[in-house]
Structure formats: C-alpha cells, structure tokens
Amino acid sequence: MVQLDIIKEVKQSEVFSIIADETKDLQKKEQMSFVVRYYYNGTINESFLDFVNAEQLDAAGLSRLTIKCLEKHGLEYRSNLVGQGYDGTAVMSGKHSGVCTRIQEEAKYAFYKLHDFLSGSYVHTKWHDIQKEMYGGQPREMPSLIDTRWACRYSACRNMLDRLPAVYRVLQQIGQEKDGDRATDARGLLAQLDVSFIGVLVTFNKVLGQSKFLSDMLQSPSLDLAAAVTLVESLLDTLEQYRSEAYFEALWKEVEEMAVKCDLSLEKTEKRQPKMNTRLCDYIITAPSGERRVNKDDGESFKRHVYYPVLDSMAGELQRRFSKPNCKIMKGIQALHPQSVTFLQEEALFSFAKIFDSNVEDLSNELYQIKRVLDRKEKSGMQRLITLLEFVAFLEPFKEVFHELFRLCKIAVVIPVSSALCERSFSALALIKNHLRTTMGDARLSHLGVLSVESRRARSLDLDEFVRRFSSKRSNRRILLF
Known about the structure:
Shape: globular
Number of helices: 23
Strand order of the largest sheet: 3-2-1-4-5
Low-confidence stretches: 289-293
Radius of gyration: 28 Å
Number of domains: 3
Distance between the termini: 26 Å
Structural class: alpha/beta
Largest sheet: 5 strands, mixed
C-alpha cells in the first residue's frame, strides 16, 4: 500500500525525476536503489521506490533495468521523466554512452544533474592518555573514512589538525619502544609528518570545511536547484578569494604556528640534488622523478605545487559538474526563483521552456499576466514570496490559467540535486538483509525496504483499508495457521 500511494502521487504530479545508486548486499549481489522526486500537495517529495538486483553493471544493462523498473510501476517516463540523478561514475554519467545518455534517448526531457594506526588497542589507550594529559576533558577519536559519507573527511582533517601535537607525541613515544614492528611503523609515520604535511592538512581543513556546508545543503530533499546554483557560485567565489596572497600568508602562518607546537624545525635544509641524465637535458620532465626535487616545506614552493593545484582542481570539478550543457536549465530555474534578480526574465525562461517543448507564445502571455497578479497581491498586503516552492504553491490554484508556467515550475522543483536518499536507503538494506537473512528473495527485500525507508507512511496506513484490500485479493479469506 505504501508503494501504491507513492506511485499514485507521482502520477498525479505528472512530472518527476529518478535517482539511483547501487551497493552490494551480504550475498555480494548488486542492489540498485531507486528513488523518485516529485511535487505533490505543495511539497517536494523524495520517496524510495524499489530495490532491484542488478545482474549486469554496464551502461546498457543498468539503462534497461531503470526503464524496466519505471514500466513495472506504470510510470510514463517518455514524456514525464524530467531529471536523472546518479553518482559521478563513467557508467552512470558518461557523456556518450552512460546510463543518463541512454535514458535520455528514450525520455528526451530526462536531463542529468550531477585512522588505522591509532585504532589498535595498545596505541588507542596511549592516544587517550596523552590527550587527557595535554588537553583535558573528553579525548577525541580519529574517524575512519567512509566512501559514501563525504562529511567524514572534513571531520578527520579537523580532528587531526586539532590534536596534531598529541599525534606527534604518541608516535615519538612508540617509536622509542622496543616493539619492533609497532616502533618501525611509528617512526615511518613520524617521518611523513613534516611541514608539508601540516600545510596539506590546514589547506584541506579550510577547503573541506567550505565544501561540507555545500554538501550538507545539497543533501536536503527540500533544496531546489536555484539554491544549489547559488551555493556553488558562493563556493567558487570563496575558492577564488583563497588564491589571494594575503589569504595564503595567513594560512602559512597557521602552518608555522602548528609546526612550532609540534617541535618541528622551520629551517630550510639543503637536500642533495639528483644528477640530471645528460640524455634528458633538452627535454621537459613531467614524470614524478622531476617532482622529487621540489622542497615543499618552503612556503613559496608549497603554494605553487600543492596549494594552487588543490584549489584549481576543486574549482574545475565544480565547474564541470555545473557545466555549459546545464547552464540553460540552471538559468531558467534561477529565473523562477522569487529572490533572484532575473525573476520571470523572458530570455532565460524562454530558453528553459524550449528544452521541454513548452509553448513559448503562451508562456509570454502568462508571464505578462503573472507579473500583474503578483503586483496586485503585494499591494493588497500579501507577503512577498521568498522561495521557489512558495511560488509553485502560489500558482497551483491558477494552474489552468498559467499552465505552461506552472509546468515549468514543477519541473524546476523536481530536478534532483543529489542522490543522498539512495545512500540513506543502503543503511536500511544493511539492517534488513543481515547475516541471519542472507537467503531473502529480491521481492521481499524490496517490499521490506519500502516499509523501512518510508516508515512514516507505513505508520500512517489505514489498517481497515489494508485488511479490505487483503481480503479482496484472496478467494479463501480464512487465515491458515498450518
């Protein structure tokens, strides 16, 4: 019944987006998680739809699996599917033959968006003791990295930076012990923790701190793409500010202060320069052998060879994910946001409308009328609209009059900005298909997954209606106990 209610709401909404991701269960079977995003009853909904076993992991197989899932639930994807959300792998997001490209061939509107050493028992105890001695209070842990949880990387960098003097002290003490393997590992790690390492740690603590804010906001189911574009632009501006000389000087000062706390020498040491092969004198060397000559403990060298490349790489990746093919859609969505300076601007909206085959002439007339309606409502005392969702709710009573504009607004709010709900469904998968239930069938796993992920809907079910439906589908209404 929960799944039927979701499908009913999607059909009433007409336009929707599909979000998918995959993971392995305990039987090492690849399970695809499907989520639908749609507008219904004044709110944006992201609802879990299905777990489906993926036997083929190539683009063609996953495309067929996605279309089969939509057809199984009776969803009209050829004209109503307006968005796709996957992870960034080449199989899913490939430009020429990825899943998103293959599905768009069938549905032309379906556009694509885009520790260990300190955990040992002996070392862990010493790690806690030294923290209590140096800082007092509750000792911190070093979180392990999780592939599906980007936020843990920032947490690991922050904790490492805050407790770096304690880490040095732990490694120094263990390195002086007589335990051969453990002492060797400690001395090896200690040799890697130089000024350059502190520079990298401080850099990533700054950069990941800013990207974590964007990541958390993008994982909100109620976030619209206009807000996502604004957040990305803000992050790009921040990264550009980080490139200034003044900011780097402040960052390197922080690096030097941390190096002093860890008793590291800041004096430049002359290292033996390797002799250049005479055969390579007339060539530019791009191999790692040439990179080893750079002394990254020097601030200027660190800035050129580490700091700027990190910033440029992150900025380039953001610009790639929000690239030119998506610019028209982004600008169109931005023009539907009441707080945007381009709100209801014809040029941006017409380009957006043409992508989804809207009637531009009707849209032009609707834009003229809606501006007058909004102006009259605000003069009569109505509070100014703030979000795109508020604008959609305002248009809903007039959807027959402003048909094209209302359709574009619904498309704008259902385009996915992340696949976070798919990743959250993996937690339910691990709880449902545990070591005691490894023989569970795929159909049962999918149904239990719906009840678990959509638990709020399940708790609100009308049990009388549930019994009525159950009895109507069974010729023998008796409950057999054996």
